[in-house]
Amino acid sequence: MFTFHNTFDSVNCIEFSDDNTLAAIGTAESYIRVWSLDNRALTSPQDPPGFQASSSRRLIGHSGPVYALSFSPSAAIPAPPTNGHTDHPTSPDSHPRYMLSCSADTTIRLWSLDTWTNLVVYRSHNSPVWDVRFCPHGHYFASASADRTARLWSTPQIAPLRIFAGHDSDVETVAWHPNGAYVFTGAGVGDKTIRMWSIAQGTQARIFTGHAGNITAIACAPNGHVVASADDKGVIILWDLRTGRLVKRMRGHGAGGIWSLDWSVESTVLVSGGADNSVRVWDVQPSKETHPKVNGENGGVAKIDGATADGGAAAGKVAKAKGREQSTADMISDFKTKKSPVYKVRFTQMNLVVAGGAYLP
């Protein structure tokens, strides 16, 4: 467990780098703070002589609250040659070199983690940007905004490559398919759908409906076959991308909703964290009930209605006890904090779970 100091302001988001060396927060006071998880000094070649570097850096540039952060993927680098041989396997991942941030000031910023400076400001959205996410392969990234659009960008260009329009309300969250060919978006009040967009064509591949609350988190399994979506009612729905079927509903989180989802390396376990001060682990094996298949034809959009497709499956039913809802049988474990809403959960490559939250005294 890590405790990060040097911040006394309200935390909006938390992010961890892929190699587990850095953690960052975005604040309502418009700045970002980055910490080294191995307590190394975060230095910059631009530091003046005599500068005493510490294990954290403060990044200033936004003029409004920072709502989301995304580290660039770590890049594998060749290991040093040993015993005179050069055909040595690659070393563990290198440190990420960049980080994206988005804000209420309608901009997205690209930061260098070598110099700890702002490199690019991306301007195109005309409303607060709620989420931003690097492509699994780097270079490209996607953003979600209150202007009801999501946008595709490449880091060297200041204008978006594509605009994904179709949601009827704020686009709250965005996620990538592991192959980088599709983007998933989720919307809030007045829409409450998840949409799957083709990067190559710039069109909707599918629309998933069935959530009763605002979509707050989306995560696609590493195997690329299942996508999980969560809402502010505490419900998680799994969707099978190969067949177009709703796999099942899972419930257990309390009031305030689910803020983060992530999959194990083998795509067999899902972890979630949220406003109810808990981290929960879920069994993602499909329930025995069958659901109707809904597919797009000739490249058309397949609208998958979870309310209809679920058919009142047992996995979606929630028992009532003493006026509160109980968890479905899919929940494997429940880890509670004292007073810390969980902003971010993430599986490591060794299938350990890293979770981050802000203590609220």
TrEMBL record:
Keywords: Repeat, WD repeat. The keyword NAD does not apply. InterPro entries: WD40/YVTN_repeat-like_dom_sf (IPR015943), WD40_PAC1 (IPR020472), WD40_repeat_CS (IPR019775), WD40_repeat_dom_sf (IPR036322), WD40_rpt (IPR001680). One of its GO terms (molecular function) is RNA polymerase II general transcription initiation factor activity. It comes from the Eukaryota. WD repeats lie at residues 4-45, 122-154, 164-207, 208-249, 258-292. GO terms for biological process: transcription initiation at RNA polymerase II promoter. This is Uncharacterized protein.
